[in-house]
Design a protein that fits this description.
- This protein has 498 residues and is mainly alpha-helical.
- Helix content is 61%, strand content 1%.
- It contains 25 helices and 2 strands.
- It has helices spanning 27-36, 39-50, 56-68, 78-91, 97-111, 129-137, 141-153, 158-171, 178-193, 201-210, 217-229, 232-237, 242-245, 250-258, 264-275, 279-296, 299-302, 311-328, 333-349, 376-387, 391-403, 408-421, 427-446, 455-466, 476-483; strands spanning 7-9, 15-17.
- The longest helix has 20 residues, at 427-446.
- The protein is globular and about 60 Å long.
Length: 498
């Protein structure tokens, strides 16, 4: 960008006026652009502010609070894209500029038309955890928000409140565990910002948990199941034993999550937990089961516009499994077990995605790659094949990369960024794809010692190559970003994907 003349160039190199608001290279300029609903100006303002290191935390905090002020905003998939962009910023702030811009554009595209929630006054009575829990259980979003507002006014530590909200989200996850995903993602963003930042999001987060959707049969059955289990949850949570972990055979356990009828998956999970198998090992098996379910998905059916379950549901399984594993490390097992049981039931219930055995996609063999110390071109080839929608070649080259024992970190770091570059289609779908790539990368690293640890990455590449999203293909995010100063890259013949 030519700062002196405040101009940018389009993809042909022609100068165009910069839409940056004069004197507003900070959050105030971004907020004004969001209020105007102008994607080009939003992109330009975020880019200008992000170039100033002292403004970066304010940009992330402002976007999070802007999202929280929209009805059900924190339950929306676009929160996942913002959390994924923040993860990239933690590793390399300079590399994060495009992901932050794309996340901002997804926010305004999907939520910009929603009204702003009116602020609520704190509750009049002194805060109590029991009062907050009752409000969440009853689905009273206004009361839950007011109670957390009172807690903050009473000086309760925000981290303590956040842990209480996480435990409540495990107990009342909502359809697809959207409440649990929201709390974990907000927590990750606040951790990146620091404990003093974005405190104002917590009352809205309590509202989101209380307002969770609970319309699907799987969720309603979960509530009945927890009522039947009763007090045995606490006793089962205490049986976890490192000695029992030695006898756990993940490859034999995984089919219980994927196959069978009725409560097969839940009975097997409960039996394993009661025997003393650590819940973390069940969560590992859940992540691999979610990946296998994605790889089993019948492509033609999942791409039908009228399909009851499709690619969004498949990708959500990867996100859910990753969040369960992360939450198990944050709260006591007794609080996390309800979420683990729900995620197992949810993954099992999505067997409707499976193609008949004869039509399932076979995992391609690893492609032979010449031994080299320069892994950059191999990473670029994997990403190029992904963006062209060539599933077999992309996964085969990915497996060949691992077969040659090339470094993991550079590959997964570039995959995170590439998810934003390829974002297209409806905003909610693009955000879900971004979050799914981040989840697959996290699961890959967490399963490093498992022989099938590459399966989550194979699954997400297969899904994104196969998903023929019939919504807008205009690549609004990329086009707007190029207007903000990034040269347009034309990829002729780009295949299906998000």
């Amino acid at each position: 960008m030519d700062r002196k003349n405040a101009r940018t160039v389009d993809f042909l190199g022609n100068p165009v006026p910069s839409p940056i608001i004069e004197g507003r290279s900070d959050w105030s300029g971004v907020a004004l652009a969001l209020a105007q609903g102008d994607p080009a100006r939003v992109a330009a303002q975020v880019k200008a502010a992000w170039e100033l290191p002292q403004q970066r935390d304010s940009i992330v905090e402002g976007l999070l609070l802007w999202l929280a002020d929209r009805p059900a905003g924190l339950l929306d998939p676009v929160l996942g894209s913002l959390a994924a962009a923040v993860r990239i910023a933690q590793d390399d702030p300079q590399q994060a500029v495009e992901p932050i811009i794309i996340a901002s554009l997804l926010l305004i595209d999907h939520l910009g038309a929603r009204p702003v929630l009116a602020p609520l006054a704190p509750a009049e009575l002194p805060f109590s955890a029991a009062s907050l829990a009752a409000a969440v259980a009853q689905g009273d979003g206004s009361a839950a928000e007011a109670w957390v507002g009172r807690a903050l006014a009473d000086g309760v530590d925000p981290l303590t409140i956040q842990k209480q909200l996480l435990a409540l989200a495990c107990r009342y996850p909502g359809d697809g565990a959207v409440a649990a995903l929201a709390v974990q993602r907000v927590g990750a963003i606040r951790t990146a910002l620091g404990p003093a930042r974005a405190v104002a999001v917590l009352p809205r987060l309590a509202r989101a948990i209380a307002d969770r959707p609970e319309e699907l049969p799987c969720t309603q059955a979960h509530e009945q199941r927890l009522a039947a289990i009763g007090d045995s949850l606490s006793s089962v949570a205490k049986t976890s034993s490192p000695e029992k972990a030695k006898v756990f055979q993940e490859v034999k356990f995984r089919p219980h999550i994927l196959d069978g009828a009725g409560d097969t998956a839940l009975r097997a999970t409960w039996k394993a937990l009661a025997f003393g198998i650590p819940p973390e090992l069940i969560a590992d098996s859940l992540a691999l089961a979610a990946a296998e379910r994605v790889l089993r998905t019948e492509v033609a059916v999942a791409n039908e516009a009228s399909a009851v379950e499709g690619w969004p549901d498949a990708l959500h399984l990867l996100c859910l499994a990753d969040v369960v594993r992360q939450i198990l490390a944050l709260v006591p097992a007794q609080d996390a077990l309800p979420l683990l049981l729900y995620a197992v039931a949810w993954t099992h219930a999505h067997g409707a995605l499976d193609a008949p055995v004869a039509r399932r996609w076979p995992l391609p063999a690893a492609e032979a790659i010449h031994q080299t110390w320069d892994h950059g071109p191999e990473i670029a080839k994997i990403i190029a094949l992904w963006h062209k929608g060539q599933a077999v070649q992309a996964v085969a080259h990915l497996r060949g990369y691992f077969l040659m024992v090339l470094p993991d970190q550079p590959l997964t770091r570039q995959l995170r960024v590439a998810a934003f570059v390829d974002a297209q289609g409806r905003a909610a779908h693009a955000a879900l794809a971004i979050a799914a790539v981040t989840a697959a990368v996290d699961s890959f690293h967490a399963l490093a010692q498992h022989p099938h640890h590459e399966n989550p990455l194979c699954a997400v590449l297969f899904a994104l190559c196969s998903w023929q999203n019939p919504a807008s293909r205009s690549r609004l995010a990329q086009a707007t970003w190029s207007r903000a100063g990034r040269p347009q890259v034309r990829r002729v013949g780009a295949g299906p994907g998000l």
